Amino acid sequence: MHERYRVPDFVERRLTHQELWSVLQPIIRRGGYDVAELGASAEGRPLRLIRVGAGPVPVLLWSQMHGDETTATRALADLLNYLASEPQAERVRRWRERLQLLVLPMLNPDGAERNIRRNAFGIDVNRDARLLATPEAKVLKAVQERYRPRYGFNLHDQNPRTRVGASERLASISLLAPPPDGSGRPVEQWQRAQRLISYFGPRIEPLVAGHITRYDDSFNPRAFGDLLSSWGVSTVLIESGGWGADPVKRWLRAVNFAALVEALDAIALDAGADADVRWYRALPENGRAVNDLVIRNGRIALAGQAPYAADLVLDLAGADYQLVDAGDLDGTAARDTLDATGLLIQPCDPADAPLPALLLGAAARLRLVRATSDSIPVWELAAGRLIRRSR
Ligand SMILES: [Zn+2]
């Protein structure tokens, strides 16, 4: 179903305000949706609320309050496209009759512009629910106060290296009903959110079998999910993690779409009321984030320095491997391990000249050569790929 309604424009993981709204505007016109400009980001990009349906149950959905987390924004565009494309479908009519969808896609367009988490003030908007220092947080709070949503969907991407519990499996989808306080008391809006997750979760579980977890459920009094829950909103957090060799997250975008369709239908039909919350509570928790590559037992050869022993840890960041740690890294787990026993590791510039210093955070280009002969490297790591050059 998602294939049919997936808007074709978003093929990159990065997504800017301009790109989003140029795609949304024709969908909004076609669907006859109501759009209200509620304010602007710190840099003046309009923050718009899309309203669909005239039902008695307000449901708030917001995405990309972290500017580099685009998966759910793309899924929301697909959902709005579905609604606009199938006005006569029984399900769509039911939603429009019983729900009032309040969609705030890309709450942090300034972060999106730079493909970073925080807004232009340098603040994490999801830690600004109490202070309301950012215009983006003010808009989200204003929507909550004006519409009093019964349900809220807080849509994010998490570290794609996060694992399921202590396993090596990626936590592809993490769900959470954020607690309204730190007491653990069963408050109705929190229980309702847990029932909703226990209804739609099993329906999407087969799409990411074995890769679904519960997000950290400790109460955070600065975070929007938690405070919305304390303000009476049954809030559901959906985090998209990693999924195999799919850095653009096409598949998890489809899973987000499916999760939202199932959840909204459950709300419209009041179908989740009897769901057994043991499903939610039995979910494995998020485990550690595991790095992409560790290179062990080699010696680093910098220009002008005697070689020294160091393990290296690297993560894929965009199109490149990025150096994240160096030294004695015994105990660091990674998806791939390269044993560099007997090899010299030469960090190089783009012209393959050896570098004089090892800098963390930079795109890594490495030549791994035998100590006895450096003419043909044994391995080369460049442009996000590790290639064997000789035996
Ligand atoms: Zn996030």
Number of strands: 20
Distance between the termini: 48 Å
**Regions with little confidence, pLDDT below 50 for 5+ residues:** none
Quickly give the CATH architecture of the largest domain.
3-Layer(aba) Sandwich
What kind of sheet is the major sheet? Answer: 8 strands, mixed
Order of helices and strands: HHEEEHHEHHEEEHEHEHHEEEEEEEEEEE
Shape: elongated
CATH fold-level topology of the largest domain:
Aminopeptidase
Helix content: 25-40%
* Bound molecule types: zinc ion
- Structural class computed from helices and strand pairing: alpha/beta
Mean pLDDT: 95
Our Rg estimate from Cα atoms comes to: 23 Å
Would you mind describing this structure in some detail?
- The chain is of the alpha/beta class and 391 residues long.
- It has two domains: 2-288, 3-Layer(aba) Sandwich (Aminopeptidase); 291-388, Roll (Urease, subunit C, domain 1).
- It has ten helices and 20 strands.
- It has helices at 2-5, 17-31, 71-85, 90-98, 109-114, 135-147, 188-204, 224-230, 250-269, 278-281; strands at 34-40, 46-52, 57-63, 99-104, 151-157, 162-164, 173-176, 212-214, 234-240, 286-289, 291-296, 299-300, 308-309, 311-317, 320-327, 334-339, 343-347, 366-370, 379-382, 385-388.
- The strands form four sheets. It has an eight-stranded mixed beta sheet, with helices on both faces.
- Helix 2 (17-31) runs parallel beside helix 3 and helix 4 packs across helix 9.
- It is elongated, with a radius of gyration of 23 Å.
- It starts with a helix and ends with a strand.
- The model has no long low-confidence stretch (mean pLDDT 95).
- It binds zinc ion.
- The site of zinc ion (ZN) has 3 residues, from loops.
